[in-house]
Amino acid sequence: MGLGERLIEELGVKTIFSIGGIAITESILNTWILIAVFFLVCLLATRKLKVENPGRGQLLLESFVEWIQKLAKGMLGEGAASYAPFICTILIFIAMVNLCALFETRITHEFTFMKPPTKDLNIPIALGLVSIVVVEAAGIIGKGVKGWLKSFTQPMAAITPINVLELFIKPLSLCMRLFGNIFGAYIIMELLKILVPLILPIPFSFYFEIFDGLIQAYVFVFLTSIYIQEAVE
Fold it and tell me: Is the dihedral of CA 186, 191, 197, 203 positive or negative?
């Protein structure tokens, strides 16, 4: 199969099965698997927590939680710090689904196990929409309905159409940036595998599948944090 055919196949939405007439696609199934694995890991990691004399594993877990909460609150600022749990959840989720590319394995023609769901445009769109709903909800909670509506006329009434248009531009920007970078990295890796199939792709794989995946997760939540911060001001 040529590169062009592979790209067309990757962009295609593959239905694995249906539930009540609702199609369950490859990306949805992989997302469910990842959520189930993450949920199981959380259960195992938190089942024997101690208040006194915690073990090394608990201390590492607490350090990670404190670090990621501090990171989220630092991006949000004091006025929007209450949204840190949402930012932490999105950050961990996107990082997790991007890093699963390291374990990508084709099971059947229709299903590739651990294929990053963010390669499917529908998943970044869903993440972008969820983020913008939270952003606008934060604005309504912080300013009230009247204050939220009035914010569309700031700093002057003449740019109200532009401010309204941002309701559609922001989620589009978030989803296309995430999808474009993840899918672009896939294209580069496929080209490298074709041109130099043995040793060279390994360090590039480390960059595109680990470093770039984590960077894109951070960029997504960083922009979302800025939007939330602006909404509550």
Answer: negative
For the chain, how long is the longest CA-to-CA vector?
A: 62
Q: Per-residue pLDDT tens for 187-226?
A: 777 777 667 666 655 666 667 677 888 898 999 999 999 9
135 and 231 Cβ atoms separated by less than 8 Å? yes
Beta-carbon-side half-sphere exposure of residue 188 (alpha carbons within 13 Å): 17
Which residues fall within 8 angstroms of residue 176, CB to CB, at 6 or more apart?
Answer: 124
- Domain of residue 209: give its range: 3-232
Q: What are phi and psi of 15, to 5 degrees?
A: -90, 125
Structural domain count of the chain = 1
**DSSP H or E segment with residue 56:** helix 56-76
DSSP three-state, residue 113: strand
Q: Per residue in 7-60, pLDDT tens? A: 656 666 678 888 888 888 888 899 999 999 999 988 888 888 888 888 888 889
- The tokens for 23 are 């199609």
